[in-house]
Design goal:
Elements (H helix, E strand, L loop, with lengths): L1 E6 L9 E2 L4 E2 L4 H4 L8 E4 L8 H8 L6 H9 L3 E2 L10 H10 L3 E2 L4 E3 L9 E5 L5 E8 L3 H4 L2 H4 L2 E3 L2 H13 L5 E7 L13 H4 L6 E4 L5 E7 L2 E6 L5 E7 L4 E7 L9 H21 L2 E5 L3 E2 L3 H7 L2 H14 L3 E5 L6 E2 L2 E3 H7 L5 E8 H12 L2 E4 L2 E4 L14 E4 L2 E5 L8 E6 L2 E2 L7 E7 H4 L13 E8 H8 L5 E2 L6 E5 L1
Parallel strand pairs: 1-4, 4-5, 5-6, 9-11, 11-12, 12-14, 17-31, 19-29, 26-32
Antiparallel strand pairs: 1-15, 2-3, 7-10, 8-9, 13-14, 15-16, 17-21, 18-20, 19-25, 22-29, 22-30, 23-24, 26-27, 27-28
Helix pairs in contact: 3-9, 11-15
C-alpha cells in the first residue's frame, strides 16, 4: 500500500487562528499535518508564501526568515507544485524559497531562464511495498496574466495542458503503477478561460488529478475517467489517497479527522515562532482609529442592489491617492463591516489582499462593457432578483462584481444580457451617446489584468502604477487615531 497526503492553498495559515475574526478555527497546517503518516508521499499544491497576516508581516519585514520552507521541511513534504500567489513577491523570493525546500519543485510548465532553479516535470516515488507513483505538476496559465514581467523576471509559465500532455507521455515510459497530476488550478468555470483547466487535464489519461486554487472542497469523483478532488484552503481539510496494487481509495477529510502521528520536527518549528504569532495577534487587536459611522458590506445581494458604504470608503481612498476621474472596487466573498472603533485586524478583515493600484485610460464603450459584466451578477426569476449562478458555480466569485464611484449608472434587469446598462453618465456627459469619451479609472492590479470577465481592461493604456498596497493606504486613513468621515455614496440604481 502507498499513501498520499495532499494540501494546497494553505496561504501561511499554520496556527488554528482565524486572524480576521480573532478566534480559533478548525484548520491550520500545524494541526492538519499531524495526520500525515510516516513514510507517506506528502504533496503540497501551492499558494504557500502569501495570504495570511503572518505572511504579510514577513513581507513588511523583508522576509528575514522563511517559515514556509521550515514548516514544509518539518512536515516531510516531498513534492511542491507552485501556486499563482507564490510569485506575488517576485522571482527572487520565490527562488529563495525553492532553494530552502527539501521538497522537489515539480512543475512541467515552469521555466527559469536564469538557470538558478530547475523545475522537474515529474517525480518518481517508490513506496515501501514497491508501488511506484509518477507525479506531474503544472500551475495555472494565468500566472502570466496576473504577474507582470517585472515580477516574474527570468521565470516563464507555459501552457499547462501542453506541458502536462508532454510529461504524461514521458512518465508512460517509466512504467509507474500510478500516474498523478497535481494542478494548481481548478475546474472550468462559465467563462471557460485558461485560468481553470482541470476538465481538459482530466482527459489526458492520468489516474489521479489533484486540483487547487478555487478554495473549494471537492470530494473524489470521476471526471473523464480520472479520479479527481480538491482539498480546500487554509489546511481546513486535507486529502488522503490510498493506493494498492489494484485499487484506489481517496477522501477529503477535515483537519481533525484521522489518526494522529507524532510530529516532533513540526512541533519544534511551531514552538520557535509561537512568540511572533502571539505578538501578531495582540498587534491586530489594538485600536488604530475610528469611523464616524459603521462602514457596512451588507448581504451580497443587498449591497449589489443598493450600494455599500464599505465600497464607497475604498473608492474614496483610491481616488484621493491617484486623483483619477473614476474608481472601482470589488468586495470579497464574505460580508464584512468596519465598526466605529477600528483595529489593524479589522482593516485586514475587510481588505485581506495586498493589492496595488493601477490607473487606466478608458472610454465610454469600455465602461459600458465593464458595467454589463457587473449587471450579469443578477438574474430575475419570476420578478425576484437573485445572484446569478455565473458568480457562484463552480466557484463563489462575489469579488467579480465591482462598485464604481463618480459615475451615474442604471441597470435594467428586465433587459437581455449585454443590454442592461440603460444609463451611464460622467459629470453630466452621456457616455452611451459618447462611447469614445476618455476618462481615467483607478482599479486594483488584479482587475487591471482583465481577469474575472474583464478582459477588455488588459487592452487599455496604463497611465500609472502605484507600489503602495491598498491595505497600507487604508491603514494610513486612521493614522494618529483619526476619525474617518462617511464617504460620498455611489450613484447607481437597479431596475427589476
Amino acid at each position: 500500500m502507498a499513501e498520499i497526503f495532499y494540501t494546497s492553498d494553505v496561504h501561511t495559515y499554520y496556527w488554528d487562528t482565524d486572524y480576521i475574526r480573532a478566534s480559533a478555527m478548525e484548520g491550520g497546517y500545524f494541526k492538519t499535518a499531524r495526520h500525515f503518516a510516516p513514510d507517506a508521499l506528502i504533496i503540497d499544491g501551492g499558494d504557500v508564501l502569501q495570504g495570511s497576516p503572518f505572511a504579510q508581516r514577513q513581507y513588511k519585514e523583508g522576509f528575514p526568515h522563511l517559515i514556509q520552507a521550515e514548516v514544509m521541511n518539518a512536515a516531510g513534504v516531498a513534492v511542491y507544485v507552485p501556486g499563482n500567489h507564490d510569485f506575488d513577491f517576485g522571482s527572487e523570493l520565490f527562488m529563495r524559497f525553492v532553494e530552502a525546500l527539501d521538497a522537489t519543485l515539480v512543475c512541467a510548465n515552469l521555466v527559469d531562464h536564469s538557470g538558478r532553479i530547475k523545475a522537474a516535470p515529474y517525480l518518481l516515488y517508490t513506496a515501501a511495498d514497491g508501488i511506484t507513483i509518477a507525479v506531474v505538476g503544472v500551475v495555472t496559465d494565468y500566472v502570466n496574466i496576473w504577474e507582470g514581467r517585472e515580477t516574474l523576471g527570468p521565470l516563464e509559465v507555459t501552457d499547462s495542458v501542453e506541458a502536462a500532455r508532454a510529461a504524461y507521455a514521458a512518465v508512460r515510459s517509466e512504467d509507474a503503477d500510478y500516474t498523478v497530476l497535481v494542478y494548481h488550478g481548478g475546474y472550468d468555470d462559465a467563462s471557460h478561460s485558461a485560468e481553470n483547466r482541470a476538465n481538459e487535464l482530466s482527459a489526458l489519461g492520468f489516474d489521479i488529478l489533484l486540483t487547487a486554487h478555487q478554495h473549494t472542497v471537492v470530494h473524489p469523483y470521476r471526471l473523464n475517467g480520472t479520479l479527481t478532488l480538491q482539498a480546500g484552503s487554509q489546511a481546513m481539510h486535507y486529502a488522503h489517497v490510498d493506493l494498492q496494487r489494484f485499487s484506489v481509495t481517496a477522501a477529503v477529510l477535515e483537519s481533525g479527522s484521522g489518526p494522529v502521528y507524532e510530529q516532533a520536527a513540526l512541533s519544534a518549528v511551531k514552538a520557535r515562532y509561537e512568540g511572533r504569532q502571539l505578538q501578531l495577534i495582540n498587534t491586530l487587536a489594538e485600536p488604530i482609529g475610528r469611523t464616524e459611522t459603521i462602514f457596512s458590506d451588507r448581504s451580497k445581494l443587498d449591497s449589489a442592489l443598493h450600494g455599500s458604504t464599505l465600497a464607497d470608503f475604498f473608492n474614496a481612498v483610491q481616488l484621493r491617492h491617484t486623483g483619477s476621474d473614476i474608481s472601482c472596487v470589488s468586495l470579497f466573498n464574505h460580508p464584512r463591516s468596519l465598526g466605529q472603533v477600528v483595529t489593524a485586524g479589522d482593516v485586514l478583515a475587510v481588505y485581506p489582499f495586498p493589492n496595488t493600484l493601477v490607473v487606466l485610460q478608458v472610454d465610454g464603450k469600455t465602461l459600458k462593457q465593464a458595467l454589463e459584466r457587473c449587471a450579469s451578477y443578477f438574474d430575475l426569476e419570476e420578478g425576484r432578483v437573485k445572484i446569478s449562478d455565473r458568480f457562484l458555480i463552480p466557484k463563489v466569485e462575489h469579488y467579480n462584481y465591482d462598485y464604481y464611484q463618480n459615475l451615474v449608472y442604471t441597470f435594467d434587469l428586465r433587459q437581455d444580457l449585454t443590454k442592461r446598462v440603460v444609463l451611464l453618465e460622467f459629470d453630466g456627459i452621456d457616455l452611451l451617446s459618447c462611447p469614445d469619451y476618455q476618462l481615467t479609472l483607478t482599479l486594483n492590479n488584479y482587475r487591471a489584468t482583465g481577469t474575472g470577465g474583464y478582459g477588455f481592461f488588459a487592452e487599455c493604456p496604463v497611465i500609472a502604477r502605484y507600489k503602495s498596497d491598498v491595505q497600507d493606504l487604508i491603514l494610513a486613513e486612521f493614522a494618529g487615531g483619526r476619525t474617518v468621515c462617511q464617504p460620498p455614496p455611489s450613484t447607481f440604481s437597479v431596475i427589476y
